[in-house]
Amino acid sequence: MQPKLIFKSLFLLVGILFLASCSDEDDDAVAPMFFTVTDYQAEYEQTLGDTLIIDLEIQNIPLSTEYTWKLDDTVISTIKNLDYVTETAGTFSLEFSATAANDSLYRSYQLTVNDPYDLYYRAKTESSSAYISEIIEYKPAPGQFINDSYGTMEDAENLVGGKSNLLSLGAWGGYVVFTFDHTIENREDAKDFVVYGNAMNGLSEPGIVQVSFDENGNGMADDTWYELAGSAHEAETTLLDYATTYSNPGEHADVPWVDNRDTTGSVLVSSYHSQNYYPLFIAEQEQVTFTGTRVYPTISSSGFVSIAALEWGYVDNYDAEYGTYGGNAMEMDWAVDANMDPVALKGIDFIKVYSGVQENAGWLGEVSTEIKGASDLSMMD
Fold it and tell me: How many angstroms separate the CA atoms of 148 and 277, rounded?
């Protein structure tokens, strides 16, 4: 082939390649971003604390694209897909934008966040009672009154509507859960409810209180529990995340236990109560495990046995206000979560009381919280 012809052929080939290259670049430059699906859900309704998830399908995204999600005027995320825990109740505008050098996308939404308290709060009526309306669960730990006087399901049901019948919760961890016919409100600068016990000066058997609001509105005590942290909760001796497992001896015999610190012991029987101390009406008939907080009141056994009261925040506990209220007045503002961080509660529907002490008090037997009932203080003033 002649040199001139070769040169023309090479020139033509280079030109074709150049034009093809320019064409590809132009195609990339002008191909806009677009949402794969044009119809989308523009309104969302969530409950406070729920997670809002919005996954977006977008085509032709340049590498330099920046994303922004705004809730009203606040940026809540800078990635393409939203995964956001709703923290404030109300109705908000939610905006998404994707911005590249010469291109952008935008979408707007409306987000409504409902406060469960507003949805499921149960107001008092003219027929409402200040006292317990229902026993939801009674699961005592072993004790001298269990399966006997003060320790049966009938005794638990007798707490409804008053404050004169006695119920034993047994040794550490044993509990009762109850509710009222209305939501107990958190009163500003005032105690909220009282739990009645049989404490006396020099004879306290401190029980610990947990509270819960029916945040899913199903009427069941299956929502988050918050513990009311009393004066002893931050003491060096107090054991948080404590657990004890009791084994059924099958007869009137000491009830062995082992805790999650590899400590063993027994709930000791006496001749005064000849029944099996292990609760025979619960589902767990071989072993039962309780979890919670263990506190340590001062116990003196020189001569007459005495158990000193803890300063405040416990039931069946002869604190400074016990005589005033005829029991232990409790405050929702003492509520903490599992990390011992304070929790702000507007109101509660369920109360759980459990024995907080694991000790044998000589001839008195095991230290076991007893209660006689509870009442809403807003209806007792």
Answer: 9
